[in-house]
Amino acid sequence: MLVKSLAFVGAANAAIRSREGTHHANVEDYTIGSVDLSNFITSWNYTMGPPPRRWYKAKFGLEYSPETNDNIIKKSGENGETTEDFDFGALTKDHYCRYREAGTEREGQCCTEEDDHCYTKAGCYCDVACFTVYGDCCTDHFVTCYEDLSLCLKKVNNNPQTAIAKELEGVNQKKNSKKLLGARMQFESNSHVVPNACCGQTEYNDGVECCHKSANGKKVYKIDAPNSPCAESSEYEYEEEAEE
After folding, report:
1. Are residues 66 and 134 in the same domain?
2. Of 40, 66, 78, 110, which is most buried with the most CB atoms under 10 A?
3. Could you read off the pLDDT of 68-110 as tens digits, one per residue?
């Protein structure tokens, strides 16, 4: 009875704090001793304000175990999936950043840094922090937000707060993390360009390079290289936008 009472109180407090829109509320805050109350926080809905951070991660784990939202994001990143390849039919539209629009306090798909109002009606987040800190991203975060938010450029330390941020860090960062800082500086000095965009997990500079999509996935090419497909990439992007 005591555990049930505590669980009820914890859930009620979570609901109240969510309803008040308290920023940085966290599912991990709701523990008493060894009793994890996160399993009882199931009553949130989008009319109550921002969900506690990590709430969606816990809820998803409870409902779809052993699958996790991070595992789906990881697979889509490792497989180089795009919005064309990703299965948007696995869950209702409320679970995807791609369909995030009216009804949430920040309209649009993805948000920079930590934005406690950048969530969907299902309670998953679409900001940078859900990927690097909390692990409460929607499952389409890689295909919808990774490039848009330039997450391949984010520097991840040796002890990232989320495993997914380390596993899906930029390809060049992954290679350069094994080299000395001096070697990295020399590399940038010799290349004369600093990456400013993402082509999947590969960093590139869109002033001198392009991200070209083919049947074998995405790859970076020099714009002025012989037989460069960059012109084709521009045509592809135009056609894709026209279709949308």
Report:
1. yes
2. 110
3. 999 999 999 988 899 988 999 999 999 999 998 754 556 678 9
Q: Cα(67)–Cα(71) distance, rounded to whole angstroms?
A: 7
Burial tier of 35 (Cβ tally within 10 Å: 0-12, 13-18, 19+): middle
Q: Which residue is it, tokens 């940078």? A: 128
Whole-structure pTM value: 0.70
What's the first-to-final CA gap in the chain, in angstroms? Answer: 55
Strand ranges (E), the chain = 31-32, 35-36, 197-199, 202-204, 209-214, 217-222
93 alpha-carbon distance from chain centroid: 16
- For 25, residues 6+ apart whose C-beta sits below 8 A from its C-beta are 14, 17, 18, 50, 52, 53
Residues 36 and 112 in one domain: yes
For residue 66, say if its preceding peptide bond is cis, omega within 30 degrees of 0: yes
Residue 207 near residue 193, CB atoms below 8 Å: yes
Q: What residue numbers bound the domain in which 159 lies?
A: 2-167
Which domain-ending residue is among 167, 197, 223?
Answer: 167
The kind and range of the H/E element at 163 are helix 163-167
The pLDDT tens digits of the residues spanning 138-172 come to 999 999 999 999 998 887 665 567 888 888 887 77
Rounded CA-CA distance 105/125 in Å is 12
